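<goal> How does this chain fold?
<sample>
Here is the protein in question

***
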Amino acid sequence: MATQTITATTHDTTNTNIKIPRGPVTATLNFYQPPSDDSKPFNYVEDPPPGTPQRNFGNTEKQISINDLRGHEHEFTLDTHAFAALRGIESQATRQTFNDEEAIKRIYYPEVEELLLKATGAKKILLFDHTIRLATPGAARAPVNRTHIDQTAFSAVQRVRLHLPSSEAEEALKGRYRIINVWRPLNPPIIAHPLAFADSTSVPDEAMVAIEHRYPERSGETAAVRYTEGQRWWW
């Protein structure tokens, strides 16, 4: 199973004078801070009921050294580090493709399916949604500035049962299944709001906190990330 996030900036990339950042950086990351009343943490995907906050947990800021992944792509794999960086991936999708929901599904979805089949050796790929994040005022989805994981082991099982017919879902759950996010920039090079990610071998299980993710019609689960010593971050 897979979900996709496509990130764009509004900068004019025809300007050859733009300086593209490189190398390690020190940046502020927002880590999980538990609710003050020790209640179960939650987050509403859309507007919450009147009198209820969007989320009931906070952030703790930490200055983190983040390494530049470029030149180190070959050192990481999905199975070991929970992320991989692929280069030279051709696509027929253009910037305009991502303005049209039907064009995304017609042109881009098959490309992602083929990419994941080759990268994972999976027998079947099911794309269940996509998100376009824009760093522009009023955008429906902006870059997320909190450390988090989109799915948990619990919500992965939920997703299998939600998106597959009942008999097929139960059979799939007998074997290996996983959710993979596929990220790509709409108008490279990215010079603002780059994606940062942690080497999963440096993040202990106790650093991940289940968050009830409340949709209008159901509740899922994501994970927030506590800061722990020794975490290794890349961008």
In short: The longest strand covers residues 58-67. The helical segments are 78-81, 101-120, 153-163, 166-172.
